[in-house]
Write a structure and sequence with these properties.
This protein has 207 residues and is mainly alpha-helical. 65% of the residues lie in helices and 4% in strands.
Length: 207
């Protein structure tokens, strides 16, 4: 009888250990990371194309903004990918799709995209990550959200300047943190990134 009890205890212990090792994955966060990767990668490619269009139209300051933002979005996509892979998942292949129009239209499209990310997409992603207790995703989503807020302001100012035919007051260069994507007007750069504390000596400059 004693041997039976010992066997039952061992069986139950093994079952508990097996169950704990096979807990369900954070399904919503995984879906959100994949959606974020698609969105950020598409934005990066799109802004790169928008930069080229702005150059063709003679809007050099706006072209620099798009180039800097393109780099920042690539950083966000890379961060999301790292978190996704740490959860044992891989990103499916996809092809970014977007349209390139006039610089004014491209700025408006960028504002609409950033506004959606700031007001709707990333707040929901963060809520899901917190609910599923995925701290690495929370950090990656927070860095992206805080950066998109700055991008939205940059784009809004650029569109206003373009419409007023007065682009001389726009930043003459930008700096991007390679760790979190934080984007600065080069005339006002912190010694360390305000989001992740990376030293400014490592920032990528666009001027």
């Amino acid at each position: 009888m004693k041997k039976v009890r010992i066997f039952l205890v061992l069986a139950i212990t093994s079952l508990i250990a097996f169950t704990s090792c096979n807990q369900s994955k954070p399904v919503k966060t995984i879906e959100n990371l994949k959606a974020g990767i698609i969105g950020e990668t598409t934005a990066s490619k799109k802004y790169e194309a928008f930069a080229q269009k702005a150059k063709e139209e003679g809007h050099d300051a706006i072209a620099m903004l798009f180039s800097a933002a393109s780099n920042a979005e690539a950083v966000h996509a890379a961060n999301h990918t790292k978190v996704l892979e740490s959860l044992g998942e891989k990103m499916d292949d996809f092809t970014p799709e977007f349209e390139v129009k006039t610089t004014a239209e491209n700025l408006q499209a960028a504002i609409e995209g950033e506004s959606y990310e700031v007001a709707t997409m990333y707040p929901q992603f963060l809520a899901d990550a917190k609910a599923e207790k995925v701290q690495k995703a929370e950090q990656s989503f927070t860095w992206a959200l805080d950066t998109e807020k700055k991008h939205n302001d940059f784009y809004s100012n650029a569109l206003s300047a373009l419409n007023a035919e007065s682009e001389s007051g726009l930043p003459t260069g930008y700096a991007v943190c390679p760790v979190c994507g934080n984007t600065y007007d080069m005339a006002n750069v912190d010694d360390k990134c305000a989001f992740c504390m990376t030293d400014k000596s490592k920032f990528i400059n666009f001027d």
